[in-house]
Amino acid sequence: MSDVLLEVDTIHTFIGQFHILEGVSLKVRTGSITALLGRNGAGKTTTLRSIMGLNPPRSGSIRLAGEPINGRPAYEIAQLGVGYVPEHRAIFRDLTVEENLRLAERKRGDLAKRSDFIMSLFPDLKRFYRHPGGKLSGGQQQMLAIARALVADNRLLLIDEPSEGLAPIIVEQIVAALRQMAAETTILLVEQNFAMAAQLADEYYILDDGRSVQHGRMADLVHDHATIDKYLGAG
Amino acid sequence: MRDRFTSSQWAGLTLIGGLIIFPFVVSLFTGQPVESGVPKFWQGMLIQVFILAVFAMSYDILMGYTGILSFGHALFFGTGAYTIGILLKHAGWDLGSALLAVIVIAIIQSLIVGLLSLRVSGVYFAMVTLAFAQMFFLLAEATDFRQWTGAEDGLQSIPVPAWISPTTERLRFYYVTLAFAIIMYLLARQVVNSPTGRVMMAIRDNETRAKVLGYHTLTFKLIAITVSGVMAALAGAFNALWNLNANPAVLGVGTTINALLMTIIGGVGSLIGPMLGAGVIQLLGYWLNVFFGPSWPLLFGIVYILIVLFLPYGIVGTWRLRSAGWLAMWRERSRSLIRFFNHP
Amino acid sequence: MIEWIQRRRGLIAGIIAAILFAMWASSQYEPRVLASILLSGLTLGALYFLVTSGLSLIFGLMDVLNFAHGTLFMIGAYIGFTLYANPRLLLNTLPFVLAFVAGWLLARWLPFSSLPAGHRRPLWVVAVLVGVFAVWGFELAPLATTALSSGGRVPTEQAQAPVGLFIARTLGLAIAGLIAGAAFIIGSEHARRPANRDLAWPIGLLALALIIAPLRLSAEGWILALDSNTRFLLALVAGAGGGAALGGLMEWSLIRPLYSRPIYQVLVTLGLVFVGTELVKGIWGPGGYFMELPAWFSRRGPSCPSPNLIAWLQDNCASIDVLGRPFPSYRIFIIALGIAMFIGIAVLLRYTRLGMIIRAGVQDGEMVQALGINVRRVFTLVFALGAGLAALGGVAAAPFLGISPGLGQEFQLQAFIAVVIGGMGSFTGAAIGALLVGLARAFGDQIVLTGIQLPWMSEAMTFSPSIARASTVLIMALVLLLRPAGLFGKKE
């Protein structure tokens, strides 16, 4: 179980004329939770978007299970088994919870097959199954966004700031759910909340100013206060 | 600052000089008198180029400098044409007061249309301005005002003062329109190089940022529309004087497309570009008409689409990019040459 | 309560205005006149709806404002009318189109993708040259206009090229399509993907083209021998289908390369207005045509007008009695068509997966893509759907308004106004806006007929139809002042 599922090799990404990623490299092992840490504007979200094909890198390579995926359109990358939970959740507000989930089906019956698992993780979604997504609370929207990535058979989940703006009690629920999910799939997690990332992740990468500067085992980082102060601020 | 002409100013002066002696050059080459025949014909061609150049330039102040996409520019051009026509023909005004009235009406019109349309932005603005232009097009066609506008036949035989009649005093009309184009160009340059012009460009690049910097962007957009509208109306007035008539087509979509075409072919975001574009369009139209007869508008449209697809920066923009590329290339070459001699 | 009133003041003002207007209208006109004005308004509203719904869907989903939507409406009218009255033109051009597409598809099947990318440009040039050579000297205008000229029909044989030459041209276009298709796939993304190797499509299309080619002469007779109702239904299908095909082609070839330059997309669609209008003028001539009503809507006789809709189903009268005033039955058909399409689109949006994707895409196209859905393909589909709706409207409008190259711009203007009133990107808004503009136009037309006498006027004022048409712009100005985002639009 220690083979590499995702390998990102010195990618450079531009948004408009701005050079956002200036050589990010990372490896995500199958079955692990890898946390992507760094200050605001370090390029964490852009890294996820580059992997997803939403901001394709201008150079460098991205491989999923050995197969190059950079330069391919986002929908093809998704079809290869990559689930995306974006920043600010991006659920479809006018669609019901059910429709939000159904939209994520890649073949007929996906939802029926995984429905029980999803509902056991997030019982709230069952209660609001036919309500429009826009009527849900922030925490429920976050759950829906994660659930949406679980509908199809995904090998890799890219999750961007799942704890952002949520009450501690909800964050605990989400941590529990992510831990259960990790038993079945691989997760690359962007998280500002260091405590949460430290609870969950096996490995970490730190981005600073568009570059990957340090990586290692999460267990080691927790005690490395110098690094935490240097790159993550008063974490 | 050195008080010397730059090379582009020299080029401009040379161009103007060339245009001043142009009628006589043609006369010299063809052996025909300057007041008739081929020289007279080519003066006519260039008169239309000058008028369209002002129209295209006015369009670029909106689109290229302020980033406002209007699809109703025919509105100003056509209203200018109708205003001067009606005042000369039915009200019996003299030319000077009629031109003044064109300016006043254009200011009022652009303020009203601007205030209404600027409540929306982007393509919405384009759509709303198109609707306003179409309204005036329909009004020009309406039979209710036949005694003033001539309805669908248009305003025929506008009495242009004899001293600049485009038929009998062609040469004088040529110099008047040339002067008109030059004055308009200088005015437009003043506007875009002024602080106001810089705010306009800031709005084009990023309106939110301009707002954050404390500019009341609506005011500056209104200024852009008014300047542009007045210039377009004057171009329309001259067009009516040249054609001796004004028909509903000057208010139609075709007129707006013409402005767009000249601006895009010449190059968005420069004053010279659209003027050049006007020349290209006028001559291209003439030759297409000669070679392809009645199907030339179709070819024209296809050329337009191809340019939008493949030459988005127009002549001037593409030339600037290329020349910048060449310059960089030669600089690099000369540097490597120097390096070669310094470190053999 | 007060807050509620403040929040809904636009709605309340609208309702009050509507009530005042209704009171004025009912005092001004007798009920039967009012009924026929309202029905006329509904008729126009239904036609506008067919234009605005597509316009609004396309804008909502892909942020493209299609200025050529009215042009598609007009082209739909011409295609439907041509099938209805003069199938000669379609029969003589359809094989060319089919053969070209067949050749294009065949290129994917052949091993062209291994050619070096440098061959791309020369291949395009060759394809254009072969295509031009294949149709050199083939004129459309005689085919389009001879059969329709008032001097009676030109015998079919005279208007058509000999079969041998025609088949040669068809094959030539197939070859041009093959070369163009090859040029297209070289170095593109198709090259590295397993090609769609289904041979049935290209061969089937080519076979169809070659079957039609020798049968053109007799097929024209067969189609014209069909009864007018069948031809009318065929015209609706052909117009909508042709419009959808053109719309899809337009998105794929001209709009798609420009998603990174949105302004230029709009510029291209404006150029297409010009090209489309000129093309139609070139083929069908600058004048207009009138399309005859099919038998269902044209019977006259002692029992006419039909007393009600049920009776009309049997006697097919040209008009139906509405409160003692005859109202053309064809306009009732247009209203029904508009309502059917409204329900159809609503069902599509509400209950199908495509509709779900569209609703989601209106909000966040990027996220839809990140879920593994090819949004670009949905874009093309929706563009085709919208274009098909507009073209369908064009065919339906043809017997009612006549056909001319200016038809498109007229509808475009009113559709834009309707969309500004209703709110861009909202399906309900598109429907309500279309209805309001339709009603405004109907009242305008009535005022044109009878003049208007407001309380302070000594005698009735009269207008020309142009003023009635122009006046809808004033409604738009009013809405812009009160609610720039439109009645159902979301605040920016």
Task: Characterise this structure.
The complex is a heterotrimer of chains A (235), B (344) and C (492). Chain A has a single domain, classed as Rossmann fold. Chain A is built from 10 helices and 10 strands. Chain A has helices at residues 44-52, 74-79, 97-103, 110-121, 123-127, 138-151, 168-182, 194-200, 218-221, 225-232, and strands at residues 4-15, 18-29, 33-37, 59-64, 67-68, 82-85, 156-160, 186-190, 203-208, 211-217. Chain A has a 6-stranded mixed β-sheet with strand order 6-7-8-3-9-10, with helices on both faces. In chain A, strands 2-1-4-5 form a 4-stranded antiparallel β-sheet, covered by helices on one side. In chain A, strand 1 and strand 2 form a beta hairpin. Chain A is globular and about 45 Å long. Chain A starts with a strand and ends with a helix. By secondary structure, chain B is an all-alpha fold. Chain B folds into 2 domains: 36-312, ABC transporter involved in vitamin B12 uptake, BtuC; 317-344. Chain B has helices spanning 7-30, 37-65, 74-89, 95-117, 123-141, 146-149, 170-193, 195-205, 207-212, 217-243, 253-266, 272-292, 296-310, 314-342. In chain B, helix 3 packs antiparallel against helix 4 and helix 11 runs parallel beside helix 14. Chain C has one domain. Chain C has helices at residues 2-7, 9-28, 31-62, 69-85, 87-109, 120-135, 141-145, 156-159, 163-185, 189-192, 200-225, 228-255, 262-284, 309-315, 329-351, 353-370, 375-401, 407-422, 427-450, 465-482, and strands at 319-322, 325-328. A two-stranded antiparallel sheet of chain C has the order 1-2. In chain C, strand 1 (319-322) and strand 2 form a beta hairpin. In chain C, helix 15 packs across helix 16 (353-370), helix 18 (407-422) packs across helix 19 and helix 19 runs antiparallel to helix 20 (465-482). The two termini of chain C are 26 Å apart. The mean pLDDT of chain C is 82. Chains in contact: A-C, B-C. The interface between A and C is medium-sized, with 21 and 19 residues.
